[in-house]
């Protein structure tokens, strides 16, 4: 996990379809099954926003060059 990540439940990429509890410094022994519909983490939302912004910027450049 990234330094400074808040304590909470996150997807454990080293454990297939499993959530783990991050205590702010390390993973605990607490786990839970990961189900569709669980809210994504803030970092994944931010990554999607950045990727979407880049895509829209490229579209604006592409269509701006045809105007």
Concise overview:
With 67 residues, this protein is an alpha+beta fold.
Explain how this protein is built:
- It contains 1 helix and 3 strands.
- It has 67 residues and is α+β, with helices and mostly antiparallel strands.
- A 3-stranded antiparallel sheet has the order 1-2-3, with no helix packed on it.
- The longest helix has 25 residues.
- It is elongated.
C-alpha Rg (nearest Å): 17 Å
- Tally of domains: 2
The residue ranges in which pLDDT falls below 50 over 5 or more consecutive positions are none
Shape: elongated
Descriptive terms for the model:
single chain, 67 residues, 2 domains, 1 helix, 3 strands, 37% helix
Secondary-structure blueprint:
Blueprint: E1 8-11, E2 18-22, E3 27-33, H1 42-66
